[in-house]
Amino acid sequence: MNIYDRMMAIGTKMTEMDASTYQGAFIGKISYMAEKEQAGQAGSIRYEFGAVKENAFMYILPILGYVDGEESPVEKFTVTLVKPSDKEKELKRVEAASYDNAEDFHTFSKEEVYSFSKETGDQNKIHLTDHPVVQGMLLLRTAAVKADDVARIDVKFVEPSYAEEELKWAYDGRDYVLFADGYVKATFRIK
Asked: Which residues are 78's β-sheet partners?
């Protein structure tokens, strides 16, 4: 399976969880690891949930991808969801550095965000407003397709990315930094 189809399958699997439990939560981190050769050559991958961990602030949700005939997963996906808070918190914005190697990442239209929600079954309200937040899985899928040859991606989300923002990214020597309007949105460590 190609990386695009695998990311869509994982995104769809995530929506099988009880949506009411996770409503309003947002993705703080994602870790994706794959046995590239096995995952890329597989005709299909079966996704299963691992044991969910929870504390007062977050959920840690693992999804494992298996190929028939293999005991060990060929993909491991872990997402950390930050629970919504009753308290108003001021967003601590991180200014983006000036990068000589910055290039366009993507500017997601509202329709692309709505379409991704529909394709994956994601009913989180933050993606369905007039000013929707771009799904973390949509950002991950876009980065994975751009990087093409991916064995591991670790993503840390700094602040929400919104539809119609002109997203750019640049390599800082360690991570790819996703930014818009002078502020960091996320970092991607790709191997």
From this structure: 31, 62
21: helix, strand or coil? helix
Q: Quick one: tokens of 131?
A: 């000013």
Neighbours of 101 (CB within 10 A): 9
pLDDT tens by residue, 9-50? 888 888 887 767 777 778 899 999 999 788 888 888 999 999
Residue type at 171?
Answer: Y
Structure tokens at 158: 């700094």
20 beta partners: none
Tell me the pLDDT tens digit for each residue of 111-144: 999 999 999 888 888 899 999 999 999 999 999 9
Q: CA-to-CA distance for 44 and 66, rounded, in angstroms?
A: 9
Partner residues linked to 183 by β-bridges? 95, 180
Domains of the chain (ranges plus CATH)? 3-86+93-190 (3.10.129.10)
First-to-last C-alpha distance (Å) of the chain: 19
d(CA 13, CA 31): 16
Sign of CA pseudo-dihedral 117, 5, 175, 170: negative
